[in-house]
Amino acid sequence: MAMNIRNFGGGLHVEYRTERDSLGEVKIPADAYYGAFTSRAINQYHVTGLRPHINLIMAFVMIKRSAAIANMRSKAIDAKRGNAIVKACDRIISGKHLDQFLVEPINSGAGTAFNMNTNEVVANIALEILGEKKGSEKVLHPNDHVNMSQSSNDTFPTAMHIAILFNIKQVIPVLDELIKTISKKAKEFASFQKIGRTHLMDALPVTLGGEFAAYATAIAKARDAIFSAKKEMEYVALGGTAVGSGANTPKGYRSVAILELAKITKIPLKPEPDMQYGLQSRFAVSNLSSTLRNLALELGRFSNDIRLMASGPVAGLSELGIPAVHAGSSIMPGKVNPSLAECMNMICFNIVGNDTTVALAAQSGQFELNVMLPVMLKAVLESTDMIKNFVPIFSRNLVSGLTANKQKLRQYIENSPVIVTLLAPKLGYLASADLYKESLKTGKTIRQLVVSKGLMSEKEVNSLLG
Question: Disulfide check for 209: which of 134, 190, 232, 436 has CB 3.0–4.6 Å away?
Fold first, then answer.
């Protein structure tokens, strides 16, 4: 928070300005670009201790810029004020004054507090551009001019979609990289036979490469579902104002505002055909969130299998070798843990929890508006942040460095009685079951028992078992 602090006789003195809103007078640090509404809000919403997400800030400021252009085109606002708003928004988009956005991610219903934080900051920057003092609301007002033709009820859902789409733009490439890395491992492991497992018990042999190819397929399907879901997010409710009726918007405003918004965001945004639906329902967000949850389920399953296959190196499965990224233990020298897979598991748990939050919030709307938007947005942005931040590390520092213990893989196949299944068509089910039990009891392999009992020649067994 910017303050004008002067030293008087060794003490600190903060200069304030006084602003008046509908509730009365509010003292605000003189150098602050926010105003009375924000000052009240930051005293109320002590929730997460977090600052607003950068993509939400950018999305909202881009909306204010686009709205100002549309209002100027329709003659709803004069060029002097409108251009000052546009220039103020451009300053923020360039990275200036970001410290003035102080309302926490979970704030008032419908995100009104954050919308007003944005209106006030843009207004006061615009006033400086016009050569006026901060808080000179008779010249340029946060509500009357910056928020012209808008409501929190249509701007927050729109900003919500844009902020999430900004994150999704980064999620898709990192998933593509992971799929490519897993697929490369699938080819590397293609000839490595291993014992399959169902119910965590020995099953018929598969290849390690086949297992990895299946992981790649699962994550690719989850990636495609996210890509498909994001298309619904491109429809925005801007122009619906308070209840989806478009009240207080000039003719032509909506189409121009969304066109300008599409240009500056570089997202193919389109007007939501049913504006009341656009305010009532959060289907697009909950649908996207569910695809993130499904991705988390697949990533978590993949991570679990890595941890199991890498367990050991003496008393576990020890089928995979994992790269060491740091010491595994503070007390046991030389220990290497699947730390990145464990981290991925925890991220996946968090994403599943976030989706539950989104689901509960999505069904909690009443009549013309769902007011639970801030918590939904926080949950989805957190999930997508974790994916885009950690998946590249998981891919490059763990998956890419996995190695196969070929000797161990072969040993498990040779020693497992379950491979008698491959001989069952020739020997019969009951005889094969007896061989299975004898193998477990004596420790002899199926290959040894079949040959020693003269049930099949060594050549016949080799042709079937490899």
Answer: 190
